[in-house]
């Protein structure tokens, strides 16, 4: 850094800079570079393509899907655009809280083309995943014309239907890694924690409920551009508050049953999603709104195309992907002493335990190993210094037919459900825009009176 500052800055100034000043400004420049590197880290596309091809295509996929959701929002009006940006606020809030709260810091994303916040959040997570799952579900579920208390759970269920193939294939293709012993994600199906589905449902529902309540209190049914600050406030409330209302939904069912009575997360998640489904079914069966059954002739829009593209991508990926060739070099659960534990505080007041560090000699994450790492599993560089950045390798399918069956089945099943919602329900409700009367100049009024 000193050489660069001398060569390109100090030597080109019209005045001399003393050694002490050069040292101070050199340190400041280094701190600035470190800060920018923490904010956003770049990785060459060629490197990702060589080591983690499926992840590169996954990033491109969700950039495309995010673009389709934004195109729909832009075409549909200001309030839809605001929802889109509200989901961005929601994504930024949730991701950063998960990284900063030690009790929730239990996953590490693969390194993308651009990765933010200390190499923890790839761009496709912030602009891609949340928009594809939450915005798409938010819009399409509105075609059911449900009351507010059922609309939120419907959006949550829709988010799960879009998330499930991504969760199953993403972890198998090492698009991220989980904490090995965290009690909240210990119970899994195809290496996907059951609580992941609980998370997507409860948080999408919470975003919807808070947004609807905020708009009910702060703005009118008609969109009025003069109240744009209030409209923005509504989406900020929803984006910032969804995490906390979602956490409350965890505290009402999952945490008491799991933490106190040791009920398996599979049962709590199925029960939670079943409650959501019952709410939606009850509301839909008693729905007297005529608009909920008129059908939608032009149902295949940007969002329908996005769903089709996502499902087709994963249906093809499960057939042709080669997980054993994957090398994911980046942040993972730190490697350190195997006997050191960490407290996990739960909303019920109980304190659970998890291993603080990843133990390369004794772990239960069968979707990764170290066969591609020269010299075998990495170790701590020195005692007391955990290893955070290292490479892990993908593993082959134990039974590819099982993955093919579940991915193809849920994609076809959910496609049929989405068709019923998108095409056979109603059209997307759009709030009217307030028409402002044009002012008539006093001079024109005077001339009109004279004419009379």
TrEMBL record:
<keyword id="KW-0012">Acyltransferase</keyword>
<dbReference type="GO" id="GO:0016746">
    <property type="term" value="F:acyltransferase activity"/>
</dbReference>
<keyword id="KW-0472">Membrane</keyword>
<feature type="transmembrane region" description="Helical">
    <location>
        <begin position="303"/>
        <end position="321"/>
    </location>
</feature>
<keyword id="KW-0812">Transmembrane</keyword>
<feature type="transmembrane region" description="Helical">
    <location>
        <begin position="108"/>
        <end position="127"/>
    </location>
</feature>
<feature type="domain" description="DUF7802">
    <location>
        <begin position="1"/>
        <end position="423"/>
    </location>
</feature>
<feature type="transmembrane region" description="Helical">
    <location>
        <begin position="55"/>
        <end position="74"/>
    </location>
</feature>
<dbReference type="InterPro" id="IPR056704">
    <property type="entry name" value="DUF7802"/>
</dbReference>
<protein>
    <submittedName>
        <fullName>Acyltransferase 3 domain-containing protein</fullName>
    </submittedName>
</protein>
<feature type="transmembrane region" description="Helical">
    <location>
        <begin position="81"/>
        <end position="102"/>
    </location>
</feature>
<feature type="transmembrane region" description="Helical">
    <location>
        <begin position="148"/>
        <end position="166"/>
    </location>
</feature>
<feature type="transmembrane region" description="Helical">
    <location>
        <begin position="233"/>
        <end position="255"/>
    </location>
</feature>
<feature type="transmembrane region" description="Helical">
    <location>
        <begin position="267"/>
        <end position="283"/>
    </location>
</feature>
<keyword id="KW-0808">Transferase</keyword>
<feature type="transmembrane region" description="Helical">
    <location>
        <begin position="405"/>
        <end position="428"/>
    </location>
</feature>
<dbReference type="Pfam" id="PF25085">
    <property type="entry name" value="DUF7802"/>
</dbReference>
<keyword id="KW-1133">Transmembrane helix</keyword>
<feature type="transmembrane region" description="Helical">
    <location>
        <begin position="197"/>
        <end position="213"/>
    </location>
</feature>
